[in-house]
Design goal:
Blueprint lengths: L3 E9 L6 E11 L1 H8 L7 E5 L13 E8 L2 E14 L2 E6 L4 H8 L1
């Protein structure tokens, strides 16, 4: 993921029980800086982004982050990660692309 990238967060609203999408600009944090900020080690399959100052409403772990890409002249949502937790204004995300081989051999 680039250091600054527009991602789309797909999340559930606790109050309305609906699925919604929201484009948000995230700033990636280095693994070392992230570990210091959340005061615990980061797993190799995780990355961190700073929690946006406004306009981002996070309700449940498991919300997904991704981006829209044009593939074969069709706009598709490309899943990049699932939110694990938020701590000290840092969003810790599991990088689902690190599981590509497992997904291809196990799920497909």
């Amino acid at each position: 993921m680039n250091s600054r990238k527009s991602l789309t967060a797909i999340l559930y609203s606790n109050q309305e029980r609906v699925l919604g999408a929201q484009k948000v600009l995230f700033d990636k944090i280095s693994s070392i800086e992230c570990s210091e900020m959340i005061q615990e080690p980061l797993q190799p399959s995780q990355f961190c982004v700073k929690k946006p100052c406004c306009g981002f409403k996070f309700h449940l772990p498991g919300s997904v982050l991704g981006t829209y890409e044009t593939i074969n002249n069709d706009k598709k949502f490309l899943l990049l990660g699932m939110i694990n937790f938020i701590k000290n204004d840092v969003i810790v995300v599991t990088d689902v692309t690190s599981y590509n081989n497992w997904i291809r051999t196990t799920v497909l």
